[in-house]
Amino acid sequence: MHALGMNPKSKLYQPDHWRGRAEATRKKAEALIDGKAKDRLLKIALEYDKLARRAHIWQMRKNEDDTWPEQEL
After folding, report:
1. pLDDT tens digits, one per residue of 24-42
2. What is the Cα gyration radius of the chain?
3. Are 29 and 41 in contact (CB under 8 A)?
């Protein structure tokens, strides 16, 4: 377990998880006729896209940190 209880193996830290949620939400929105409901789902899909970007950045930073040698205290 990492600082702040973050589990890097959790799907919540995987960009593909959030991209998949965004895609599935957009497909549901396409099937709707009601404009308000459709707009809400599209906004949710955009939030999933943001989470995917955050997860991607988190992974990149984590990978960078893993390449640095251990610092001596």
Report:
1. 999 999 999 999 999 999 9
2. 17
3. yes
